Fold this sequence. Notes:
This protein is about 10% helix and about 45% strand. It has five helices and 48 strands. Strands 14, 15, 16, 17, 18, 19, 20, 21, 23, 24, 25, 26 and 27 form a 13-stranded mixed beta sheet that branches. Strands 1, 4, 5, 6, 7, 8, 9, 10, 11, 12, 13 and 22 form a twelve-stranded antiparallel beta sheet that branches. The longest helix has 19 residues, at about 1-20. The radius of gyration is 28 Å and the shape is globular. Mean pLDDT is about 95; it is low at about 1-15.
Amino acid sequence: MKIFIYTIVSLFAISSYSQKKYPSDYFRSPLDIPIVLAGTFGELRSNHFHAGLDIKTDQKEGLNVYAAADGYVSRIKVALWGYGKVIYVTHPNGYTTVYAHLSKFGAGIEEFVKKDQYKKENYETGNIFLKADQIPVKKGQIIAYSGSTGGFVAPHLHFEVRNTKTENIINPMLFGFLPEDSIPPKFKNLLIYPIEDSSRVNNSEKRASLQFKKIEPTIYSTSQVLASGRVGFGVDVYDQLNGAYNKNGIYGLTMYVNGYKMYQHELETFSFAKSKFINLLIDYPHYAKYNAKFQRLFKRPKNTLGIYKKLINNGYLDVKAGYNYNVEIVASDFNGNSTTIRIPIKGVKSNAIFKQAEDTTAYKIKADAFHRFDLKNASVAFPKNSFYKDVYLDLKEDKDVVTIHEPILPLDKSFTLTFDISKYSKEEVKQLYIANINNKKYPNYQSTTKKGSKAFTTSKTLGEYTLIIDNQNPTIKLKNFINGSWLTNSKTLTVEISDIGSGIQSYRASIDGEWILMEYNLKKRLLTYDFSDKKLIETKHKFEIDVLDNVGNKSTLSATFYKKS
Length: 565
């Protein structure tokens, strides 16, 4: 009981200290509905930590989004993927707030953005950086409307707080953006890892899943574990908030051994540049195989994440024969709710009588060196420090499929894969692209460069790659009108576009020969033009659209419509 009380008091003290570092009453909520979260700050995502709060919008789009405080719009971007439509507001207190996945910008800002889009004749704007005197905003001013832009996302508002100077992302909850939460985190699974060749867990050199049972409302315990040598722990854990079914990320993990804090990390702040090291925090091979993210309570080499508050022996436990260890792992959310697992460990003499054979192949990678491997019709080149450690790769070519190991190792840098395409005709080369086929049902187009008799791409994903010929043109369908129809009462013009091969690269639409801005909804595959963008003078109009896929196949559609001004 003494250990448990010490744990709770320590966590509360640390949480209180962190909150005092940030102003809790400076910002207002970006929405005028209660904060209910679909995603928490620092949540484990694919290859990165979640950089903000995903605030639910009741499955609706078009909710008012307000400036959290006085400031100025410092950056705007419109993109098909990522944050979609996003706006950055810089404040005089040294912080910048970010509002993403928007459906539309507020008055004045929307017109500014559309002017840029029409000037560039492109839906995607790239980053637009603004000066402090261009678009000032007041606290509570409507600066945008919620949406679902930026890929295949449900309606919600992604909200961030950043340090303006360093660009580091900070947990918005530290500024008072607090959802109602009285629910403690939940452990799904617990792993213990033998770290060294002589390490053993229950007389085995393999990692073990430990079962646990409830002994108090928020305290669980495993059976006694027999161990020897250096071991580490990993947990699959999530949190839930009041009024939401989402399985969100936790705020912190702490490990005590016999009452002493050995490990602690908290999701207070991190930099974008280091977010990729999530792949060293989690058990990446297990995630790649089973899609379950186990957070390791020990720090691996080359992991430079700044989330660690306490690290003794890098979180490893050195178990000695004849000693007993009472391990407690505490998962906590931001509101101070916590759940504990207790693991009694008895140190025994190691039964190691042999060293496990190394997994060796002909393709050895020294992490600090450049490597190039030539196959029959392909080659693979790994820059220096592509991998976080020395590894042996399985590498083969079979029937135009190049297999570069299993996709179970994280990479820090991209490798280059090159195919010999000399056997293809000129027409075939035009329609050729490299695809990742880890998912056999849905080949994934890789940005492909062709030069002479070679085609190459870069990637950070191991696995299977092949060459595919795409000779299918994209499809275009009129949605809210037919050729020759009247659109006098219509506010928009809509078409559907799709491609079953390499995917759509670009599109261009015009009315009476002049470029028009068509908003692209990736999820619904719809392009929509708003007639309010420009006044039509005549009654009869010609609509034209060209759609290009990633290998250059092109489709064109033209139609006539009538609309009175």
